[in-house]
Amino acid sequence: MIELKEISKVYGSGYTRKKALDKVSLSIPQGQIVGLFGENGAGKTTLMKCILGYIHHDGKVTLDGEPITPKNIIRISYATNEHSFFPGLTAKAHAEFYAEHFPKFSEKRFKALMEFFELPENKPIRHFSTGQKNQFEVVMAMCQGADYILMDEPFAGNDVFNREDFYKVLLGILEPHETVVLSTHLLEEVENFIGRAVLLHNGRIVGDVTTMELEETGRSLMDYVKETYNYRSDRVVKVIRELGSSESDS
Amino acid sequence: MRRIFEEWVVTNPFAGWERQQSVEDDARWNRRKKRWKIFEAWCERKINRMTPPGFEWKPILNWSVAGMGICSLISIFRFLGRYGKAWRSLKWDIQTMAEYEAYVREHYGVQTGESLWFIGNGKYKDEWMTIREFISVVEEGELISSFSWVMKGVMAPFVYLMAIILLLTIFHYLYYYRETKSIYLMKRLPNRSELHRRSLSLPLILVAACVVVIVLLTAVCCGWYYLWVPDRCIAPGQLSHFLREGIFTMWRGDGL
């Protein structure tokens, strides 16, 4: 289980000071598919980087009670829209690199996913299209052999068919012990795919619900998000009405 | 013509042997080529493991080797310049020089002692050395500048080269932020030293290669210094003085 205790992160100082995370506490047990939602700047990426120890932060992150160190970081993989592959290396060379450093690297899963996405094995990733790069990023995260797979908006730039197919494949290939934390804006797309939704707003967790709880209350994920964020649908009507009247006056 | 050639091949007892030889040569050549290719691939694999993954290291290696060659040439010229200056500063005994030339003319029929190197297929080389020892043209009691002085600033070009090579380290670290954030993957590796190993190895190996070239060049310069200067003109303890002090001054840029 990944446990975050009172994680705080502040960027900048003085006038540029921005609290990206404010005492966030969260537990992610093994085997869950967690959706991490929030507006731009809510702190989703920062939260993931704190888990991986990429940025300095206050608070404590533990993995099965142990702090995350080179010893156990092998159990976490990360797919990011910033991409973490080597652009000059081919897919095949990446597989060799992963196999060398990650003992649980799954060659079988790599081959299957490469075939699924129809990605070329002997072409430097630099020459892939943006969509292919995203797919490759996800493939590597999935094949590392990690127990916790963190994905930070991995499908930005991919077409809807690719995304939908991928969710299906993901559900099919995930082992029971594998955990996925997926940060995305595509609420409706992942609604049927995730088991739990965590909502972030201004660096704080404002909602944490399982899809089972949602089903029991008969609400959709979108409804829950709108409720949690105090979404006011009347403001849209108001703006349109105001703009409409001002244009007719002129 | 073809018929004559075929007859010749049939009648010539060596024709088959030549052909056989040529086939064997080809096979040997192919074997060598194969072995070289295996060695080349092995080196490539080794260097690939010492550089950031996917990094184009070949141009860097070529430029570094070229840089070492250029620096070696500059260093040799600097050494020869200072060495010549040291020679010119010696006081020459005109009387002894005349005697020396007369002796060489009389015994070997050449104008200068140095010509002994080029006559008789080099068989007078040793005699020239002997003559040089006993009939020197340098004034009695004259001492040539120390080896440390001659070497001052000679290796300065290598300092610049090594500084440039060490800058490569920064370039290697920055590579993990170029185009993508592969630094995230490097930081996630169970072996944390991998990042530093891949960033530092090649620059350090190239710097070590520079040091080897410097040591070799210094040895050549030292040999040259001792070979041409008469022993009586060399102050004792040159090498220990060089190792004590000269080794630090041969890097300075104010050589000539």
Topology:
The complex is a heterodimer of chains A (250) and B (256).
Chain A: E1 2-11, E2 18-28, E3 33-37, H1 44-52, E4 58-63, E5 66-67, E6 76-80, H2 91-101, H3 107-117, H4 130-143, E7 148-152, H5 160-173, E8 179-183, H6 187-190, E9 196-201, E10 204-210, H7 211-217, H8 221-228, H9 234-249
Parallel strand pairs in A: 3-8, 3-9, 6-7, 7-8
Antiparallel strand pairs in A: 1-2, 1-4, 4-5, 9-10
Chain B: H1 2-11, H2 15-50, H3 58-88, H4 94-108, H5 125-134, H6 147-151, H7 156-175, H8 183-187, H9 193-228, H10 238-249
Backbone CA Rg of chain A: 20 Å
Number of strands of chain A: 10
User: Outline of chain B, from the CA principal axes?
Assistant: flat
Mean pLDDT score of chain A:
87
Give the number of DSSP strands of chain B: 0
The sequence of SSEs of chain A as H and E is EEEHEEEHHHEHEHEEHHH
The third-level CATH topology of the domain at 31-41 and 71-232 in chain A is Rossmann fold
Under CATH at level 1, the class of the domain at 31-41 and 71-232 in chain A stands as Alpha Beta
Description:
The complex is a heterodimer of chains A (250) and B (256). Chain A is globular and about 65 Å long. Chain A has a domain at 31-41 and 71-232: Rossmann fold (3-Layer(aba) Sandwich), CATH 3.40.50. Chain A has a 6-stranded mixed sheet, with helices on both faces. A 4-stranded antiparallel sheet of chain A has the order 2-1-4-5, covered by helices on one side. Chain A is built from 9 helices and 10 strands. With 250 residues, chain A is an alpha/beta fold. Chain B is mostly helical and 256 residues long. Chain B folds into 2 domains: 57-90 and 144-256, no CATH class; 92-137, no CATH class. Helices cover 70% and strands 0% of the residues of chain B. In chain B, helix 3 packs antiparallel against helix 7, helix 3 runs parallel beside helix 9 and helix 7 packs antiparallel against helix 9 (193-228). Chain B is flat, with a radius of gyration of 29 Å. The interface between A and B is medium-sized, with 25 and 20 residues.
